[in-house]
Specification:
The protein is an alpha/beta fold and 219 residues long. The protein contains seven helices and seven strands. The chain has a seven-stranded mixed sheet. It is globular, with a radius of gyration of 16 Å.
């Protein structure tokens, strides 16, 4: 592991610090991406797993017929989500649990959609995390991501590379290349890319949808 790699201890400490102010700092900035992810997930419906549910900021925006499960590595963030569910009486939230995205304690093929907003750049092993998403996803279901994708060239790439050590301490990886997702897809024969769409702010984020073959056996 290099000095600029992410590790779970750093991530937990970072998001414990973010928990009291996360909604204020990121609520409006990430709202368009969040709403796009919810809309994409609702087109499938059924049982939805939100990985990296955080403070539960998305939960009230799903239709009440959607059955929701939320998991997060950060207990302080998840406490905020539990408060939100109780205060807003979100009866469609079936469970909230502390869980490692790379080792989901959930059954194979148990969700119609897996949603991960601003998560893939915050985990130590994105490919292992995507493997877990595919494992718990039902055949015919979708993985819906909203995430920053790093620039391939130019000044933005140089900035992302230079900022990376600081960003690690804040809990994410700014220089994440699109090639990591396509590389994973090449090794995931039951999965396919459905959509990649630029999202605000500034188009530096993307809504990404992966579909699981309807005839696929449980991973």
């Amino acid at each position: 592991m290099t000095a600029t790699d992410l590790d779970k201890g750093t991530i937990e400490k970072a998001y414990a610090r973010w928990a009291p102010v996360y909604d204020i700092v990121f609520g409006a900035v990430f709202d368009r991406g969040r709403q796009a992810a919810i809309a994409a997930a609702e087109r499938i419906g059924g049982r939805i797993l939100e990985v990296g549910v955080g403070t539960g900021i998305s939960l009230p925006h799903y239709r009440p017929d959607i059955k929701l499960t939320g998991v997060d590595l950060s207990l302080p963030m998840l406490r905020k989500a539990r408060e939100r569910v109780a205060t807003q009486r979100l009866a469609n939230v079936e469970a909230l649990a502390v869980m490692d995205a790379e080792r989901l304690g959930l059954a194979d093929a148990s969700f119609d959609v897996v949603v991960a907003q601003y998560v893939i750049t915050t985990v130590p092993n994105p490919e292992a995390t995507l493997d877990e998403f595919a494992r718990v996803l039902k055949p015919g279901g979708e993985i819906v991501l909203v995430n920053h994708i790093g620039a391939e060239t130019g000044l933005r790439r140089a900035f992302e590379q230079g900022f990376a050590p600081v960003a690690r301490q804040l809990g994410w990886r700014p220089e994440f290349p699109w090639g990591r997702l396509t590389g994973w897809l090449d090794r995931a024969p039951t999965m396919r890319l459905i959509e990649r769409r630029p999202m605000p702010p500034l188009g530096h984020f993307s809504l990404i949808r992966f579909g699981k073959d309807a005839l696929a056996a449980a991973a």
